[in-house]
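Weekly modeling sync, notes
Attendees: S.R. (lead), two postdocs, one rotation student

Agenda item 3: backlog of single-chain predictions. S.R. asked that every request posted to the team notebook include the full sequence so nobody has to chase files. The rotation student volunteered to paste the first one in as an example of the format we agreed on. Action items at the bottom.

Example entry:
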Amino acid sequence: MTPRAECCRASHASFARPASNLLDKMKAISTATALICSLVFVGGCASPFHASFDAAKYDRMSCVELNVAMGEVAKELSATAITRGKVAKTNIPNWLWGARRVATTVTARQNAKIEQVQQQEAAIAAVRRSRC
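Predicted structure, as returned to the notebook:
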């Protein structure tokens, strides 16, 4: 190896460790940014104010349609509960300002949505009991 190659190699070797730490920090920041963006997106979609149900429409449904509606509501309830659990279990770094507040807000919205879907499920079940 030439002296110039050894000199360059030695000078670059001292920067190898900090560059690795920098890459790790950049990966953590990009992961945290993606997490925050997804939480905000999910939180916006989980707003309890955008969706309401009309209990009277279940009175006009047949038993088969009620069964299908009950299955769809159960699927929505499960998906919402799974999302809420993932958000609640997310390990949020302390240095990421505002992330815990976002996670708490998303969890609260998911709770509200679950309550609404449970009311919808109860309305369907009541009509099914009386008619089918």
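Discussion: group reviewed the output briefly. The radius of gyration is 26 Å.
Action items: rotation student to repeat for the remaining queue; S.R. to check formatting next week.
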